[in-house]
Amino acid sequence: MTEINYGPLAGLIGVWKGDKGTDIAPEPVGSENNAYFETITFEGIGDVSNAEAQTLVLLHYVQVVQRSENSDVFHHQTGYWSWDAATGVVTHSFAIPRGVSVVACGKVLDTDHAPANAIVFQVSAEDTGFDGGIAQSSFMQRKANTSAFSQILTLDGDTLSYEQTIMLDIYSKTFEHTDSNILVRQPSS
Ligand code: HEM
Q1: Residue 181 CA: which ligand 1 atom is closest?
Q2: Position 1 in a domain
Q3: What's the CATH number where 24 sits?
Q4: 62 in a structural domain
Q5: Share of residues in the chain with pLDDT > 90 (%)
Q6: Which of 60, 77, 76, 65 has the alpha carbon at shortest distance from 13?
Q7: What is the pTM of this model?
Q8: Which value, to the nearest 10 degrees, does the dihedral of the CA atoms of residues 79, 156, 184, 125 take?
């Protein structure tokens, strides 16, 4: 079997857990702030070629997010991270159950813009974007439109952290829905 070189994505493969999550989510008046814990599982799934011109290496992941106060699963997400060795482009594509899918494109930050020894992935998408984009149900477009997504994911050895901002048009306002957490690599069983 051919050995796959996952490049900067290689260190993500595995199971990660974190209990320092902070979520700020929309309410009709003001916002709700939720503490959360989560598990993210990344698996290397090989490579793919597009139009016989582009080769991507791929990880698939599942993210399960639970409220700290009662352990209810209140966010679930699955998707892919890809890396194009020829261009350095990193793409994070994912879906959430509300009827929203995102293709966020970006890169690995160069060492001048990343902590020593860390690999920092920066990706973003806009609903009007020409590179990547956001697809959502007509209900969500009308009532809870996601207009932009941006994320910084930092891999530093056995620690994985992220910060993300989702711009929403909801309840007749523009709302900055944010999430961040710090996760620790779990020993492989
Ligand atoms: C750790 C990640 C996330 C957590 C914990 C989270 C949590 C929440 C919570 C608690 C709400 C409001 C309460 C509700 O109606 O369920 C909400 C609303 C929403 N979230 Fe997230 N979210 C996360 C990530 C995302 C992402 C990545 C997207 C889209 C790209 C997204 C899109 C939305 C939308 C469109 C709403 C408005 C729906 C509504 O409040 O009725 N969320 N989220």
Answers
A1: 1
A2: no
A3: 2.40.128.20
A4: yes
A5: 93
A6: 60
A7: 0.97
A8: -30
Number of domains the chain contains:
1
Cβ of residue 64 lying under 6 Å from some atom of ligand 1: no
Please tell me if the CB atom of residue 74 comes closer than 6 angstroms to any atom of ligand 1.
Answer: yes
Assess if residue 2 is contained within a domain. no
From 27, 34, 37, 75, give the residue whose CB has the most ligand 1 atoms within 8 Å, as the site to mutate. 75
Report whether pLDDT(114) > 90.
Answer: no
Please give the residue range of the domain that contains residue 126: 7-185
Q: Is the CB of 26 under 6 A from ligand 1?
A: yes
Q: Tell me the pLDDT tens digit for each residue of 119-175.
A: 999 999 999 988 999 999 999 999 999 999 999 999 999 999 999 999 999 999 999
Q: Which long-range contacts (CB under 8 A, 24 or more apart) does 176-180 make?
A: 176/24, 177/23, 177/24, 177/25, 177/26, 178/22, 178/23, 178/24, 179/21, 179/22, 179/23, 179/24, 180/21, 180/22
Confidence tier at 112 by pLDDT (50, 70, 90): confident
Task: Kindly give the distance from the C-alpha atom of residue 107 to the centroid of ligand 1, in angstroms, as a whole number.
Answer: 25
